[in-house]
Predict the structure of Sortilin N-terminal domain-containing protein.
Amino acid sequence: MNKQFIIASLAILFSIHLQAQEVVLKGKELFGNLEARQIGPALMSGRIIDLENHPTNDRILYAGTAGGGVWKSSNGGASFSSVFDDHAQSIGVVKIDPNDPDNTIWVGTGEIWTRNSVSIGDGLYKSTDGGANWKKMGFENSERIGSIEINPKNSNEIYVGVLGALWGDSEERGVYKTVDGGKTWNKILYVNEKTGVNDLIMDPNDPNTLYAAMWEFRRTAWGFNSGGPNSALYKSTDAGKTWNKIHNGFPKGDLGRFALAIAPSNSKIVYAVVESKEDKGLYRSDDAGASWKLLNGDFGLVVRPFYFSRIVVDPKNPDILVKGGLFGSISRDGGKTFKNLGSMHPDIHDVVFDINNSDRMYVGTDGGVYRSWDGGSTMDMVDNLPISQFYHISVDNEEPYNIYGGLQDNGSWWGPSSSPGGIEARDWNRVGYGDGFRVLKHPTKNIIYSEMQGAQNVWRYDVDKNYTKNIAPLPIKGEADLRFNWNAPMAVSNHQPDRFYMGSQFLHVSDDMGDNWKKISPDLTTNDPAKQDKESGGISTDKSGAETHTTIFTIAESPIDQKVIWVGTDDGNVQVTQDGGATWTNTVANIQGLPKNTWVYHIEASSHHKGTAYAVFDGHASGDMNTYVYKTSDFGKTWKSLVTDEIIGFARNIQEDYVNEDLLYLGTEFGLFITINGGKNWSRFTNNMPAAAVHFIDLQKKTNDLVLGTHGRGVIIIDDISPLRQINQEILVKDVHFFDPKPSIIKEEGGFGGGSTELQFIGDNPSSSAKIIYYLKKRHTFGKMTLSVQDQNGTEIVSLVPGKAKGINIVTWNFRKKGPKVAAGKTFTFSGFTAPRASAGTYKIVLKKGKKQYESAITLQNDPTSLISEKDRIAHNKTTQELFNDMEDLAYLVHKIDQNIKKAEAVLKKVPASQKVTSAVVKELNALKETLVVTTGDNYVDEAEPQLREKLSDLYGEVAEQFEKPSFAQLENQEVLEARLNEAKATYEKINGKQIAKFNKYLEKSGETPAKILSKEEFIKK
């Protein structure tokens, strides 16, 4: 056999072997206990889709949200907690089983108020333990479930109304029924692939009677059509076997979306708001739908039916009803007249009446949940629902850094990544109105750029002067009108701080912060007239500007070369210039496997190579729910897909790591996905990270924090992702590997924070502790495992609890050493348990795993903003250590006293005749002890006078907690207390030489052993 052939074959086999041995960490193994923190905010909350209250317990309420999952209140709506984090966060309906309301809850996913920015669902879910756990019950391809009805006499009989796909045809639409609790489903009403169930209600007094509102609708990226010949209202009186239209009295011609409600106290009374060209408005039937009469066509009842189609009737009074709308309308005369509900965030989507008191109401809006105690006249907002819907976020380089972003229908804001006491509502600052989108900080000046929908306003806000100027580019005489996307793109230059970009169909640039603009491109879109200036809305005109299409959507200037600029459009073009805009190349034709005209949602220009960029495409607005993520390394001449089956949901954003170009972060409609090998494998990040739509990602360069703008769960931060940068195959084959941590800063902070009530949301601060990060190839299950911090001489500073999981483990150290041994007493002395702070320097980290030992190091640094001198630090450490020693000396002294008293009392009890010698010991030692520690009272109302331990503890705790050198007063106090301690030691020695000596002689004669007193070293270790 040929020698070269043998060598080549062996090389191939070796290569295959190496590939087979490649270690791939997934999920929890990859991320370990690297955890996200959710910082809200909640002061602007987010859209509520559906409210559902418990039928017998007025304290329990569920809220289904547009993009923030399901939340449960157990205290009448005062506060809520999330119960649906692991599943699709876009909710259509929440339903409580009336036969088992404490346990059984059903959730249909997929928002039903079908605006442009709605997310999608992935099926029907059921919980049998009050929302603690959930099981999927089918309908994976339904996209939007708007109704669930349960037979109040039979929990196995359930009806589901599927609204279905918003952007395309779907045969999943229709009314479905199960008679076996959801094991099997039958479709019992279906019209066609364009018409879904927008409302399905059951007669509360007759479970065989059902009403189904069928709605024909379709949205595109450039328009919306509500209504058609197939929209209709149906009724069944035989549990869904047969259905009949009930249109007697309704308008003729095509109809649109219905709002529908039965009066619970009188099933004959049925209300319907009908969308139509003529005679639209509120209709009432007093004969269970046999005939209808138009009562009212007020604007508040008929405005935007695709967004406001909910009627709710008072459970006790059939003439009191509420209709969702811009401000919400309430009638108390059976629908003849209406007035607005009380002041609250506009866009009202759902209302529930309290089961016992109709003056008490809950209202779901675009800005969260509100409560009323006076029938809707005044409203109170729930302050702890962090379900804000960010479109974009960005960060600055302040310390702590700030986060900027725009919200759906809630303006634009900026707030801190940390704040004393936690991140509160009052920490956030408004910088825009309306629908907020991109918010960008000027790189060097205290100026913020923000915008509202469609570039109606583009604000340049001078924070110091509190001055705002509108700097939106304007059309030039004789040239085309500008087309700005509802979510208009802005960008700040990486190279010229005053340079600011905006995109219409053209790329605009300003070199003076927006005062003057010039176009540096031709029309970069397809400029397809079929997708422009169409009347939108269908039966009800709805042209808000959100349908403006064939526009630029994303702008990316290369961080390496300012002449390289990428532009992506909503109609599928990927344009690049390498000469600052003089010439442009459309590269989309070079992307294989991408459907034509797929929305370019984000382009990320690489920080590593100027020819490299990443493009994320979103096809959901054309009914394509696939994931599209591509990378080019040659200015778009060729592209490769980075998508694997591990990614769930269509993608919105990608962020390249600034240090490791193989580390990428991808935001999809169902969460965050991370790859450490350039896209070969992806893992979903789930550590305190809900399955929310991630619309934008930014990476803070100083802290290495990954900051996520979610469309439903506010801002989410993963602090310091730097360990992920270091992972490679060389590390993954090791049994144990310590990652190189960045130096930990001992921050000299101690200000006052907090002040919010327990019912207000407070975002978590990042941990200020040092992080010890290591990798375990296998989970440690058997044998001893310890982790300690040691000084350079090997002396243990503190012992920590090690993480034992396979993969990445993170253990925190709060810079504290072991606390002192505190003297035993009647009451606690909390200051005495203060552990002294370790000094700046390098420390050994020692991990013992069975018989093997692994070492690393960690560096602590003093606060760089500190004004404390090294001389003062030495003085502080010296006094702290002296007081620490005093604390332990006192504790040991009390130990010796207690042991002798204990022995003397035991002997006295056993031998009453020993009273003379034992009583002397007890009397003298108790008298001494009473001067050393508190021996009576409690920690509250019967507080005894502080003794030496209490005074020494207070001084020690005060000095140990501070950073600066001790004051003269503290040093004088130390001198006084140490004098008392020395005096007490001397007194004890006198007692020991007299009363205790006599007692020990007595014990010796009696054949008894003396009191068991440990050595000081033994006592301290105990």
User: Anything to note?
Assistant: The longest strand covers residues 206-220. Residues 5-20 have pLDDT under 50 and may be disordered.
